[in-house]
Amino acid sequence: MSARVEALYKSRPRSRFVQLTLWSFGLFTLLTWLSGVIQPASFLTARRLENLERFLTVDIVPAPLREGGFDLGALITWTQGVLLDHGLDALLATLAISVLAIVLAMLLSWLFAPLAAATLSTRRPFDATPGQDLFGWRALRLVTRAVMILLRSIPEYVLAFLLLAILGPNHAWPAVLALALHNSGILGRLGAETIENLDPQPLRTLTAIGAPRRSLLVSAVFPLALGRYLLYFFYRFETCVREATVLGMLGVVSLGYYIQQARGKMYYDEMLLLILLGAGIVIASDILSAVARRYLRTAS
Amino acid sequence: MSAEALAALPTRANRRARLIFGIFLAALLSWLALDLSLADAIPRESGAGILSLFVEGALSPAMSYEAAEVPAGTPPLLSKVLEAVWTTLLFAVAGMSLAVVLGLFFGFLGATSWWKDDGADSPLGQGLLSRAMPVIYGVVRVWIALMRSVHELLWAILFLVAFGLNNFSAVIAIAIPYGGTLAKVFSEMLDECPRESARSLRAIGAGPLQVFLWGLLPRAFADMSAYAFYRFECAVRSSAVLGFFGYPTIGYYLRLSAENLHYREVWTYLYALIALVLIVELWSSKLRERIVIR
Amino acid sequence: MSVLYDGQPALKDFNLSVTPGETLALVGPSGCGKTTALSLCNAMVRPSAGAVTVDGEDLSQASEGGLRALRARMGFIPQDLGLVPNLRVSQNVLSGRLGKQGLLRSVATAFSTRNPEHERALSILDELGIGEKLFHRVDSLSGGERQRVAIARALYQEADYLIADEPLSALDPARARETITLLTEVARTKELTLLLSMHDIELAREFVPRLVGLRAGSVLFDGASGELSEAELSALYDLEEEDRVG
Question: Which CATH superfamily is domain A86-297 in?
Answer without folding.
Answer: MetI-like (1.10.3720.10)
